[in-house]
Amino acid sequence: MLEGLDKQLFLFLNSLHSPFFDKVMWIISYPPTWIPLYLAIIVLLILKYRRKMIMIVIVIALLITASDQVSVAIKNTVKRPRPCWEKSIEGKVHTVNGQCGGKYGFVSSHASNSFAVALLSLCLFRKRWLSISIVAWALVVGYSRIYLGVHYPADVLFGSILGALTGWCAYLLFDLIDSKFMEKSLFFNRLLKEPDKNADISTGIK
Fold this sequence. Notes:
This protein is mainly alpha-helical. The chain contains 7 helices and no strands. α4 (about 55-80) runs antiparallel to α5, α5 packs antiparallel against α6 (about 130-145) and α6 runs antiparallel to α7 (about 155-195). It is elongated, with a radius of gyration of 24 Å. The N and C termini lie far apart (about 95 Å).
């Protein structure tokens, strides 16, 4: 029943297309389009956490890798065909530039990756305008996958949840490493400032 509702919702959303939005959604869904955004986020993070640049880069790299690879592993385990590969709705699916992607679509890697970045950015920046912008971008990316006929709404929904969880875990990792780093910094600062109690306090030999 739920699968049937998912297909009906997909067919409705996928049918709302036009030549103009075909081009727009294709660009939005094209991963290299995201590179300027990723670079901007990295630059903003470095400006905010200047002394933690290496840690920021490592956490983001781990985030993207985990989000992408876990979603691919789920695809290969669940093996739910993409709408454009589904025989029962063949001829009803609108695709763009004849592209369909790999055979399996649950969950959406695009949705997972975009929401992972969105959640991590939201936690690290905590600025309302940026939070709204980044979440809106992630939602549009997710919708573009339905528009292009390569994912069902459930693929996008669960991909978004996976991405959000991955982003949250990445933030917890960053916070953990950061707190441990601060503890060590404070320890060494105190060690440098405190006099050695065992040191000879005599000023000389008479």
